[in-house]
Amino acid sequence: xxxxxxxxxxxxSYPRREARARQTRRDVLAAAGRLFVAGGxxxxxxxxxxxxxxxAVQTIYAVFGNKRALLGQLLDVxxxxxxxxxxxxxxxxxxxxxxxPTSTERLHAYASVVRRINGRAGDLxxxxxxxxxxxxxxxxxxxxxxxxxxxxAKSVIDAVRSIGRLREGLxxxxxxxxxxxxxxxxxxxxxxxxxxWSLDEYEQWLAAAMVEQLLGSATST
Length: 221
Prior knowledge:
This protein is an all-alpha fold. It is built from 10 helices and no strands.
């Protein structure tokens, strides 16, 4: 993931100005997130975001360009948890997914990651999905987001297969599809937002489902 963030350059002559600009950017993203989730993409205006963030609307146009770009960058930051230029798979909290000693432990670690990501970005994924169904200009962003999510699932399946085996009869492509389904925000929103599950309950169920669907009886590998 390449987060488009204007981080202060080393040895900059204007560190305070850059720090203020970065904080303004964060304030705008936080305001946009609140309004998108509360009212939906279509009902949210950049003027409303500007008022919520306490900035001029011209600032939002200058920094983000338009509402679609604002939503895309908001999703990137929500997924990662911050605006640092570090790919998700290179984050410290992803390391156990690739280094835990057994396949089961790697899937449990991934369930924790999915909980983390959906806890921050799950509602925004829903905003994008709904908006893309009525706004053709968001279709590419929605498709890219889904492709990226499936790619993430593929990297986890590769990590599992590098030290163990999938359940009998399950090929790699179907395994990726299953994990792609399970890591989705729709499952998160159904169980946590609609059914009222706690995040702990969601993570425990998710880990068990991943192990059962992907490893079957081979849970010791």
